[in-house]
Amino acid sequence: MSHNLTLAQNHAFDLGRTLMVPVILFQAESEFGVMVSSEYDGDQDAIVHEYDPWCPAH
Q1: How high is the pLDDT of residue 11?
Q2: Which burial class, exposed, middle or buried, applies to 19 when counting CB atoms under 10 A from its CB (0-12, 13-18, 19+)?
Q3: pTM to 2 decimals?
Q4: Backbone phi, psi, residue 22, to 5°
Q5: Of the candidates 53, 3, 4, 12, which has an alpha carbon nearest to the alpha carbon of residue 34?
Q6: How far is CA 12 from the centre of its chain?
């Protein structure tokens, strides 16, 4: 977990590209976390962004 959004975004992007699986960046209270999308079963409103290494950047 990280309190810094920019740091969490960078780690999420790197993790998705390293594992080559979609990952979710989510916010829990005042912290940000990252996990594999297929394992996320939390609140959909907590999702900040989904990083999919198979889709081109927007």
Answers
A1: 95
A2: exposed
A3: 0.88
A4: -65, 140
A5: 12
A6: 5
